[in-house]
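Board notes, transcribed. Complex of a protein with manganese (II) ion.
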Amino acid sequence: MNADLHCHSNVSDGLLAPADVARRAQAGGVTVWALTDHDEIGGQAEASATAQALGMRYLPGVEISVTWAGKTVHVVGLGIDPACPTLIAGLYATRHGRSGRARAIAAALEAVGIPGAYEGALRFVSNPDLISRTHFARFLVDEGFAQSTADVFDRFLGDGKPGYVPHRWAALEDAVAWIKAAGGVAVIAHPGRYRYTPLEFDALFGAFIDLGGEAIEVVTGSHTPDQYREYADVARRFGFEASRGSDFHAPGEGRIELGSLPPLPADLTPVWERFV
Ligand code: AMP
Ligand code: MN
Ligand code: MN
Ligand code: MN
């Protein structure tokens, strides 16, 4: 079983259409797949139809932006019903505000000598409801302000950098509730990326469990091998099911291809087992 349960299409900040991400997943050997666009399920019908035509098992998915203890956390929902009105309304509300934030990001970049970033980022946007920092990053690379999208985040768009604009996303309790209302399982995405203290991490995992969250990503394109071990231990300690996903966005952007991550540690319970 080669599960890849975290990736993006051009319905959010990926570069490929959902059907092309599906083909790439299948070419990469993926047998259980989920497309998890940020705050959007507009790609689910195309992803699901293509996956099934290619013989992959498909889990409808989403990656919800959350603010918890003043920082951004991403919560993946797997096995959701994309027609669930509660989920649809919640994601709509979460997307709302991205345009205003994008204008504020452009103003902040203009203040450090980079004009026209809003219009520039829009050149890279397929879904006008979903403008993200990744689109700004592609614009800045294209204009020669940085070498790579990672370089853009290090110098301009990461937390505390000149183009960083604080934003309040969904509440953790709401994101988990929407996922559960849609019949899905809630998964904490790439925990190794969050800059919480050990005490805050324990509080996050405890709160997540109390709300009905059940899984964390252990093997992800955002973790180092040391972090695979660290979050495998977290899964054991808190009784979480474990997930695996590349967080693929675009060919050549980021280091991990669909389906190419190492397997989960054998003693963990894969979150996809409940669906297959
Ligand atoms: P947003 O939801 O608009 O804040 O954008 C977040 C997205 O930016 C993430 O989903 C990633 O695709 C991308 N991103 C965040 N940090 C980095 C980084 N250090 N390098 C490359 N991409 C990043
Ligand atoms: Mn992204
Ligand atoms: Mn994420
Ligand atoms: Mn992601």
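The pocket of adenosine monophosphate (ligand 1) is lined by residues 13, 38, 65, 132-134, 149-150, 153, 249 (CB under 6 Å). The chain has ten helices and nine strands.
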